[in-house]
Amino acid sequence: MKTKLVLILVLGLSFLHKQELYAQSFEAYEKHQYIKNNDTLPYRLLLPGGYQKGKKYPLVIFLHGAGERGNDNEKQLTHGGALFVSAENRQKYPAIVVFPQCSQKSYWSNVKIAGSGTNRVFEFTNGGKPTFPMQLLLALMRDLDTRYGIKKQQVYVMGLSMGGMGTFELVNRMPETFAAAIPICGGANTATAANLKGTKWWVFHGGKDDVVLPRYSEEMVAAMKKNKVNVKFTLFPDANHNSWDAAFAQPDLLKWLFSQSRSR
């Protein structure tokens, strides 16, 4: 019994230590707000180590899921924040990384949701007026371009769940911008697939996802292939909705992302 208690204590302290390290490392993400017409989009910004003004860097936009919505400018780093702030990845892939935060009652993409669990249905629109957070994000993209040195041929977007859906939508609304995109457990209107050709895609989903069913990614990938979009698809057979954990664990994920370049 004593051995078990010691083990539990050690594991608990290890977990707290890791959480403390994560909290400290997340401080590297500067807190910002983009304000337009009295509307505010909180975002966290990670600059490369030794950032030099006047030098150009790749840009990564990361879109969080519905559970991280709000205005605290913190929750959006819950999933994915540790991936980019690790010392190893910052050294290997110096880039400007931006985590915007969607407001609590809104969504990145134009989608209607009905039902729950495996009966939940997502109805994606094709076009239409962007949601307020998407409007602010589009404006933020232009603002970042004026304030930082960004390599136009190396602009990327990633997102999970609601953010995976937002990833498809952002590329659809800015089809000449992104070199590569990684939507995780997302989906979109298949009619938009023809507009995604200029971007290289790596799509992820969990085979047992009962929140956003795998068919939403599968149908998009099929439509993308039909329209000759450069896309690869990884389905984790035993993963549920948190397939981002498996996606982040892919050893060549960031290597693949940063190796993509868009011809200008």
Secondary structure layout:
Blueprint: H1 2-26, E1 30-36, E2 39-46, E3 57-63, H2 81-85, H3 87-92, E4 96-100, E5 111-114, E6 121-124, H4 132-147, E7 150-160, H5 162-173, E8 180-184, E9 200-206, H6 215-226, E10 231-236, H7 243-248, H8 253-259
Parallel strand pairs: 3-4, 3-7, 7-8, 8-9, 9-10
Antiparallel strand pairs: 1-2, 2-4, 5-6
Question: Describe it for me?
Answer:
The chain is of the alpha/beta class and 264 residues long. It has one domain (30-259): 3-Layer(aba) Sandwich (Rossmann fold), CATH 3.40.50. The protein is built from eight helices and ten strands. The protein has helices spanning 2-26, 81-85, 87-92, 132-147, 162-173, 215-226, 243-248, 253-259; strands at 30-36, 39-46, 57-63, 96-100, 111-114, 121-124, 150-160, 180-184, 200-206, 231-236. The strands form two sheets. It has an eight-stranded mixed β-sheet. Strands 5-6 form a two-stranded antiparallel ribbon. β9 (200-206), α6 (215-226) and β10 (231-236) form a beta-alpha-beta unit. The protein is globular. The N and C termini lie far apart (65 Å).
